[in-house]
Amino acid sequence: MASIARTEAHAAKTGLKVAVMGAGAVGCYYGGMLARAGHEVVLIARPRHVEAINREGLRLQTTSFDAQVRLAASSAPSAVQGAQLVLFCVKSLDTEAAGAHIKPQLAPDALVLTLQNGVDNADRLRTVLPGTTAAASW
Questions:
Q1: Which of 35, 53, 97, 98 could crosslink 73 through cysteines, CB 3.0-4.6 Å?
Q2: Half-sphere exposure of 115 (CA within 13 A, CB side)
Q3: pTM exceeds cut of 0.85
Q4: Distances (CA, A) of 63 to 53, 54, 60, 66
């Protein structure tokens, strides 16, 4: 395994504050890549996953590198607090419930970007996060 890929000093100088709601395969990949690029990232995941990330870091294996990335992890939806960007990566069936959980902690100017399967998730998310910019990626 390669060395830790991100430093706190670099993130403080250059990065966005990013929260990843639903840190499974997709969320961990994008969260890990953003952390490697120097952004302050918190992954929001199930407790066992959070424990492993906090203990060992997040291992990213790609065709061009294999690295342990140190970043924050939490099982509390309130960890989105202060994030400028929220990558919303929960399963489609959990869209409304997860959106409602993060709503009280969202910054007024936060961008919520859905990285979910399905064509209507951003619209469904906007119903529980009115006034929030919720965008979809394809």
A1: 53
A2: 19
A3: yes
A4: 22, 25, 10, 8
Exposure of 17 in the CB half-sphere (CA atoms within 13 A): 11
How far apart are alpha carbons 47 and 95 in whole angstroms? 19
Q: Which CATH class is domain 8-136?
A: alpha beta
Which residue in this structure is represented by tokens 């639903």? 22
Instruction: Say what percent of the chain tops pLDDT 90.
Output: 81
Listed by start position, the domains of the chain span: 8-136
**Sign, CA torsion 117/25/137/124:** positive
| Per-residue pLDDT reduced to its tens digit, 9-46 | 444 556 899 999 999 999 999 999 999 999 999 999 99
